[in-house]
Structures are given as C-alpha cells and as structure tokens.
Specification:
Methane Monooxygenase Hydroxylase, Chain G, domain 1; about 90 residues; about 85% helix; mainly alpha; about 0% strand; 3 helices; single chain
Length: about 90
C-alpha cells in the first residue's frame, strides 16, 4: 500500500483512470468483435455500416491515450481490407 501522500494520490488517480480505460477497451472490443462476426457471416452491408463506429471507438481510444495512433491506424486499415475482401 502507498505510504507517502503523493503515492496515495497517484493510487487514487490510477483507480479513476482504470475505470475509463476499461470503458474504452470495452468499446473497442465490442465494435471489433461485432465487425468480425459480420465479416465471418459475409454480411458486407452490415459490416460497412459498422465501420464509422469502429473508427470512432479507435479514435477515442487514441485521444485518451489508451492505444497509440499507429495501432489504431493499423486496426482501421485491417478492418477496411477485410471489408473490401468481401467483394
């Protein structure tokens, strides 16, 4: 357990940050999981409709520094490639 006052404050801040990070992670995971399900089902229209939500979740994750910008770019690119492969 934290002893100094600054360590106690850092601990409190980390607890608060954890809630936001978990929420951001859930948003990204939920969108990508649904997208993968639609791709597996070969539902191009549904997957295309979901792309803005995926982009939004990834962009917010970058904005809050949950993931790095290049990671988000890579995930966006791979999602679009998977969508375009459906034909």
């Amino acid at each position: 357990m934290a002893i100094t006052s600054s360590a106690k404050k850092a601990f409190r801040a980390a607890k608060k940050k954890r809630v936001f990070n978990l929420r951001r992670k859930a948003a990204v995971d939920r969108q990508t999981k649904e997208f993968r399900r639609l791709i597996a089902a070969k539902d191009k229209a549904g997957a295309a409709k979901l792309m803005p939500a995926i982009y939004k979740a990834l962009d917010k994750a970058v904005k809050t520094k949950y993931i790095k910008a290049n990671t988000a770019s890579r995930l966006k690119s791979r999602s679009m490639v998977a969508l375009n492969k459906l034909g």
